Amino acid sequence: MERSRVRKQALRGVFMLFFALTRAPFLPGMDPITLSPQTSMKLDLDFRAYGLNDQRIYWSGLEFSFGVEANVDVSITRRYRRGSLTVEAELFLNQPFGKNILQDEFRRDYQANFQVEPLHLSRLNLRFASGQFSVAIGKGVTPFGRFHFSSPSNDLDFAAPFIRSEAILWRETGIFLHWANRFLEVDVAAVNGGDERDTNSGKAGIFRVGLHGKAWAVGASHKIHDVTGSEWQKQYNGHTGLDFNWQAGCFRFSAEWIWDRYGFHRPFDSNEIFWPRSLYYRDIFLAEKTPVKGRGWYGDIRYRKGSLSIALNYGEYYPQKIGNPLHDLLIRRIILRLAVLPAPQLRFYFTGLLENDREREPWSEGAKPFAFLAGMEFSL
Fold first, then answer.
1. Which of 14, 32, 142, 212 has its CA 20 to 30 A from that of 342?
2. CB-CB contact of 187 with 208 (8 Å)
3. Alpha helix positions (H), the chain
């Protein structure tokens, strides 16, 4: 009898999910779906089509292209007497580049940068919450600092401030502890230290303490990742940061600062890199078990009213001068984001990025320091 009852509940849940999904396109928004008295589900879907022109990679043959992608974000919450358990999952559906990519002895080093996975697992974790405390295990948003801008594509690094695209990781995998009351919040995490499953015996620790009010928040973060594993190709990825945001009517002001540590912890020939590499020559070795240091910041101003959203972001990054002109120059980046919603759930958007010109290798002289992306998005 117990097994029969479980089967009936499972079939009922599947039917309700199917019914909700078939109704979804006609709803003004995807409200939480009740699967049972104790269980609910929230589903968000985004579909995008766009044109991308990134002149920073003019030398690759892939600098201008049209593309499509989708984002599936689902969470299922089960409520118990002493708390709730939530399963969170976010999947990116991507259109890969064609295989006929321009190659030569110089460009071949960057081939991994353009190997796009058709299906990418952005987040997947289990979170138990009870009162002011929660614990999550899995892959989730990195609890370092806070950002308040949106990405125009599944490629989160595109048109993001430099310290977010090159230093702070978007996602981490591990265990995350969070506690918050009316004024204070604390995050503590033990993580792999990379985007995916670990390839290094060393682990990283992340800590953040913040204060918040009704329309403002400020916090301090620290990430320790000394890469003490035995593998020679491992790199430092640690930083200390401050974050701030303030909402004033239709405007939101936000900013982040970091003191950064990066680079190989042991001698390693950068020509042997087979994974995606930085266009800003951050994959370097300075000295035995000595990180390269840098500092950076950005400020973001967003205006949103009715169907219009405008945002402007400006930031700078100061790498440590190590005698390599390809690495040492100050980096400035300005980003403009525009979005218009002509109808519910439909958005037209434009994102433009401009940097200061920097030292280049002879084979990449044709590259220019700007990029832009324009497209449309339909959300449910």
1. 32
2. yes
3. 2-23, 162, 325-328
Beta strand ranges found along 249-365 (DSSP E): 251-264, 292-305, 308-319, 331-343, 346-355
Torsion 97-345-160-169 (CA) sign: negative
Burial of 315 (C-beta count, 10 Å sphere; 0-12/13-18/19+): buried
Cβ pair 194, 169 in contact under 8 A: yes
For residue 11, give Cα distances in angstroms to 38, 89, 123: 16, 22, 27
Query: Where would I find the beta strands (DSSP E) of 320-364?
Result: 331-343, 346-355
**This prediction's pTM:** 0.86
